[in-house]
Amino acid sequence: MKFPPPSTIGVLGGGQLGRMLALEARRAGHRVAIFTDEPHGCPAGQYSDVEINAPYSDTDALSRFLQQVDVVTAEFENIPASCLAAVEAVKPLRPGAKALITTQHREREKNFLRDQGIACAPFRVIDDLAGLEAAVAELGRPCVIKTAAFGYDGKGQCKVTAETDLAQAWSSFTGQRAVVEQWVSFVCEVSVVGARSISGQMATHGCVENQHTHHILDVTISPARVDPQITEQALALWKAVAEGLDYVGTMAVEMFVTTDGKVIVNEIAPRPHNSGHYTIDACRTNQFQQQQRAVCGLPLGDASQHTPAVMVNLLGDVWPAPLTHPDWSPVLNHPGAKLHLYGKREARPRRKMGHFTVLGDTIDAALRDALEIRKALGIG
């Protein structure tokens, strides 16, 4: 079913991804309704026509939300399964509950990748210390323990080295299921952001190179500085994931490029992604416009990139005080730099507050200028 303007898009979640989706949806003539457990005036709510603030378990509030929308999407994956089921029972949910439930849980996600024959690191699922000991004996050291559910930006992870005491490492995971992954020796991290429509049409933004600090995305370089065969592998993996999930909407797949020239999947994000924010300024159709089109059953746009670009995240660490913005002159004075702030009232360390993107004639020029601006802002 198609939902052209002025249909109302319902969004589960109130963060910056919902905010940027709302901006594009309203620009395209849609109304936007937000359902979130965040306080009133959240980043997405600031640009929505309707904002309902309630726990995801509040069935009455959810019913009021559903009465006001035509189609629903999610701006982050960790929505309770009961809420997703309640939505899908009465309104089209894109992507569907199956895709969201699979990707919000590492065990289900890893099993999906294995069952689909999609390359990922060898892993074992555990729920006690004995299981950890057996997994480490099989996979070797180093390896990584990750919580099975609700992990992001490096949270819920522990690296196991030759010196690690397994009982001590497991103490922070006790009572949870976890995934133990074999350590991957990689030369760089890349991702592909793209969209798939209800008809199966697919459009990807290409392969980008990502640099992380403290497990949080710091810099995205697009296009990635990798061999063409690496890009081909990455695009093929994205398409395999999208088809395997029967996905509808914008999706990111994060990947490792290994030391032997292979590409393997690290994580799936069933939504627009931080590493795709450069598309707002550097692509003919950005990731949020693609989400709006796919969710509404409309044809996807041209996802190609028109200008080399580098995106840098702005975390709360840059703010001199929680309510005091830094001097943005280094960004604003650069003719090829674009500043994007997310409307969050209070800055905290490692909280994503915004980003800037630098466009350049070449990727080297864009990266040079982006790093100079980054340094001038006191990042790093």
Automatic annotation (TrEMBL):
| Tree of life domain | Bacteria
Name the Pfam families for this protein. ATP-grasp, PurK_C, RS_preATP-grasp-like
Keyword DNA repair part of the UniProt annotation: no
List UniProt keywords, sorted A-Z.
ATP-binding, Ligase, Nucleotide-binding, Purine biosynthesis
Tagged with keyword Transmembrane helix: no
Q: In which pathway does it act?
A: Purine metabolism; IMP biosynthesis via de novo pathway; 5-amino-1-(5-phospho-D-ribosyl)imidazole-4-carboxylate from 5-amino-1-(5-phospho-D-ribosyl)imidazole (N5-CAIR route): step 1/2
Q: Identify the EC number(s).
A: 6.3.4.18
User: Which GO terms label this protein's molecular function in UniProt?
Assistant: 5-(carboxyamino)imidazole ribonucleotide synthase activity; ATP binding; metal ion binding; phosphoribosylaminoimidazole carboxylase activity
- One term under GO cellular component: cytosol
Q: Which reaction does it catalyse?
A: 5-amino-1-(5-phospho-beta-D-ribosyl)imidazole + hydrogencarbonate + ATP = 5-carboxyamino-1-(5-phospho-D-ribosyl)imidazole + ADP + phosphate + 2 H(+)
Report any one BP term from Gene Ontology: 'de novo' IMP biosynthetic process
| Xref: SUPFAM superfamilies | Glutathione synthetase ATP-binding domain-like, PreATP-grasp domain, Rudiment single hybrid motif
Q: What class of enzyme is it?
A: ligase
- InterPro entries per record: ATP-grasp (IPR011761), ATP-grasp_carboxylate-amine (IPR003135), ATP_grasp_subdomain_1 (IPR013815), PreATP-grasp_dom_sf (IPR016185), PurK (IPR005875), PurK_C (IPR040686), PurT/PurK_preATP-grasp (IPR054350), Rudment_hybrid_motif (IPR011054)
Query: Which residues hold ATP?
Result: 106, 146, 151-157, 181-184, 189, 212, 266-267
| Residue span, ATP-grasp domain | 110-296
**Protein's job:** Catalyzes the ATP-dependent conversion of 5-aminoimidazole ribonucleotide (AIR) and HCO(3)(-) to N5-carboxyaminoimidazole ribonucleotide (N5-CAIR).
- Binding partners and assembly: Homodimer.
The entry assigns this protein to a family as follows: Belongs to the PurK/PurT family.
Name the UniProt record assigns to this protein: N5-carboxyaminoimidazole ribonucleotide synthase
Q: Which organism is it from?
A: Prosthecobacter vanneervenii
Q: What is the lineage of its organism?
A: Bacteria, Pseudomonadati, Verrucomicrobiota, Verrucomicrobiia, Verrucomicrobiales
Question: Its encoding gene is what?
Answer: purK
